[in-house]
């Protein structure tokens, strides 16, 4: 019987190949996916990792064995798979381990219309079936005819759809450096940008799941150093960096300085609200104070949620929100089936910059209003005990408010911090924001002195 305790996460499947899983297990996941979703047809895609084509094909064989017709879209970004799920109205599976090292692979699954599959929405049932069938030596024979496998290229349709949502045809010409990190951005960016008034300077567009140049994780500052240097060296208007499966996009300005994802969230929110006055915008509780401020200033209604795509997508569906953003550079759009797409956010940034004559740093300054610490991780033996000690330190202060929507958030007169436990590691994650850097440093040091005591 396969041990899936380390393989099946809260929102996806992810582990080392072939140590933790292989094509035989992928086939069982495909069969279980069809059983749990009741699908008569599914769409499957994969990234550029060496193990991805075989795993994706095995998953498709398992799905077909249960009677589902399988549309294989081949190499794609995760948001391209979400597009296919939405456009075809089919459940889908994307084979990727995003920014993880080359030996990893995983599955991101969704129901028809890109609706998420997580522990509470089918993933726990899929895991139970895979465990059962692995112990029994395979999935049971389906009581319907075996499904078919057919190939379909949807890259051009994906690009056309995104360009229909953001019109860049009339912007001034822009010089853009894009670092694809040898990931799927190297596959999608040329087609999406084709014919637009953009001079593309391509960094690491060769698809290579061994990541020979740097990890495809732009959240780590060391992985955008090459992008920053190229932007400064060439005098480009901006730089874009995509993670391995190209569902997240990070931005640097013309100086090579990183633009905070909260500033991008605020910028895109303002643009979306211009076309839908009074609409709701979702933001997680670690995004900057500037996000709800900008939403209100543009006539929208901000709604604060927990961290994580399942919570964002639930709230978007519940409220009919037009847009949602997270501090981790995940951006969600109602017009994209409430799914996240870094590419669509990038097109909004390009349009906003190209519709005026100023620089990107000047443009985003109106959305980047506060000082922040970034995420600071502390390894602790007793997450709950250390978090409780921090809560006790602030509970009786007259100038603070505490809430526990997601971890502990403490808000003071001109600052706030959030302390959350990692679900997968013995870590406490701290984020601090304030009106000035000195206050950020003071609050950061106060909290860490308790966390690390």
TrEMBL record:
Gene3D superfamilies: Alpha-D-Glucose-1,6-Bisphosphate, subunit A, domain 3, Alpha-D-phosphohexomutase, C-terminal domain. GO terms for molecular function: intramolecular phosphotransferase activity; metal ion binding. Residues 7-133, 157-256, 264-370 form the Alpha-D-phosphohexomutase alpha/beta/alpha domain. InterPro entries: A-D-PHexomutase_a/b/a-I, A-D-PHexomutase_a/b/a-I/II/III, A-D-PHexomutase_a/b/a-II, A-D-PHexomutase_a/b/a-III, A-D-PHexomutase_C, A-D-PHexomutase_C_sf, Alpha-D-phosphohexomutase_SF. Residues 375-448 form the Alpha-D-phosphohexomutase C-terminal domain. One of its GO terms (biological process) is carbohydrate metabolic process. The keyword Metal-binding applies. Keywords: Isomerase, Magnesium, Metal-binding, Phosphoprotein. The keyword Nucleus does not apply. Its cofactor is Mg(2+). NCBIfam families: PRK09542.1 (NF007088). Belongs to the phosphohexose mutase family. This is Phosphomannomutase/phosphoglucomutase. It comes from Streptomyces boncukensis.
């Amino acid at each position: 019987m396969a041990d899936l305790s380390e393989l099946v996460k809260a929102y996806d499947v992810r582990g080392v190949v072939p140590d933790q899983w292989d094509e035989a297990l992928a086939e069982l996941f495909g069969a279980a996916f069809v059983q749990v979703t009741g699908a008569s047809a599914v769409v499957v895609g994969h990234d550029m990792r060496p193990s991805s084509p075989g795993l994706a094909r095995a998953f498709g064989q398992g799905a077909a064995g249960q009677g589902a017709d399988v549309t294989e879209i081949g190499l794609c970004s995760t948001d391209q798979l979400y597009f296919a799920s939405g456009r075809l109205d089919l459940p889908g599976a994307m084979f990727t381990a995003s920014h993880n090292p080359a030996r990893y692979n995983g599955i991101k699954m969704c129901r028809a219309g890109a609706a998420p599959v997580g522990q509470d929405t089918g993933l726990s049932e899929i895991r139970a079936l895979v465990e059962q069938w692995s112990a029994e030596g395979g999935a049971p024979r389906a009581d319907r005819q075996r499904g078919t496998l057919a190939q379909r290229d949807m890259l051009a349709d994906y690009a056309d759809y995104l360009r229909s949502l953001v019109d860049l045809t009339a912007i001034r010409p822009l010089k853009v450096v894009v670092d694809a990190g040898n990931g799927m951005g190297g596959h999608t960016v040329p087609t999406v940008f084709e014919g637009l008034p953009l001079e593309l300077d391509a960094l690491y567009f060769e698809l290579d799941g061994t990541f020979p140049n740097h990890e495809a994780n732009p959240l780590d500052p060391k992985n955008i150093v090459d992008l920053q240097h190229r932007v400064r060296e060439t005098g480009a208007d901006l730089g874009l960096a995509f993670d391995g499966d190209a569902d997240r996009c990070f931005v640097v300005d013309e100086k090579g300085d990183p633009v905070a994802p909260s500033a991008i969230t605020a910028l895109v929110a303002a643009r979306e609200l211009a076309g839908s006055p009074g609409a709701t915008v979702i933001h997680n509780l670690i995004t900057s104070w500037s996000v709800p401020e900008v939403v209100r200033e543009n006539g929208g209604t901000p709604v604060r949620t927990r961290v994580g795509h399942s919570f964002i997508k639930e709230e978007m569906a519940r409220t009919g929100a037009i847009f949602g953003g997270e501090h981790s550079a995940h951006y969600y759009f109602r017009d994209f089936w409430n799914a996240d797409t870094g590419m669509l956010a990038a097109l909004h940034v390009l349009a906003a910059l190209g519709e005026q004559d100023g620089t990107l740093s000047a443009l985003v300054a109106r959305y980047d209003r506060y000082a922040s610490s970034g995420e600071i991780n502390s390894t602790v033996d007793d997450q709950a005990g250390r978090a409780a000690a921090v809560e006790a330190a602030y509970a009786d202060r007259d100038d603070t408010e505490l809430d526990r929507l997601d971890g502990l958030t403490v808000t003071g007169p001109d600052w706030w911090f959030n302390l959350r436990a990692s679900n997968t590691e013995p870590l406490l994650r701290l984020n601090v924001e304030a009106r000035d850097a000195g206050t950020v440093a003071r609050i950061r040091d106060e909290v860490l002195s308790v966390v690390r005591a």
